[in-house]
Amino acid sequence: MPNTAILFGRLLILLGIIGYGYTMFFAEKAAPTSLIPAVFGLILMVLGHISNAKENLRKHLMHGAVLIGLIGFGVPVFQIFRNISNFVFDFKAVLLISMSLLCLVFVALCVKSFMDARRSEAV
């Protein structure tokens, strides 16, 4: 599971860099808020690397990573629904949807891993 957190952290960082680069080159000014996925990705990567190094903290750190994933899913969805009356499918919307989907897939994989680990403990 830590390697999954590292992978999704890298994907979120890449998404943030692409978003910032797009706003810097194609928009009127660079939007620092487009780096928000990168911040979530950095946190996931750090949690993944620490849990690889500290076996005794892995369970707690991975639960923290799932919490970050849930927040990373909820914040963009909230932003989309908050502005649903004047929703425009632009690059910002693509970034929000991409971040929420990446975080949702990460959370789903974590939940599956937790369930599998629980089943293996019960046997």
From the structure above, extract its key features.
single chain; 123 residues; mainly alpha; elongated
Describe the protein:
The protein has helices at residues 2-26, 36-53, 58-82, 91-122. It is built from four helices and no strands. The two termini are 20 Å apart. With 123 residues, it is mainly alpha-helical. 81% of the residues lie in helices and 0% in strands.
Q: What is the terminal-to-terminal distance?
A: 20 Å
- Biggest beta sheet summary: none
Helix percentage range: over 70%
Structural class, from helix and strand content? mainly alpha
Please tally the β strands and state the result: 0
The chain-level mean pLDDT equals: 91
Low-confidence stretches: none
Radius of gyration: 16 Å
The number of distinct helices, counting runs of at least 4 residues, comes to 4
Shape: elongated
Q: Tell me the fraction of residues in β-strands, as a range.
A: under 5%
H/E series? HHHH
What is the topology?
Blueprint: H1 2-26, H2 36-53, H3 58-82, H4 91-122
Helix pairs in contact: 1-2, 1-4, 2-3, 3-4
Structure at a glance:
This protein has 123 residues and is mainly alpha-helical. It has helices at residues 2-26, 36-53, 58-82, 91-122.
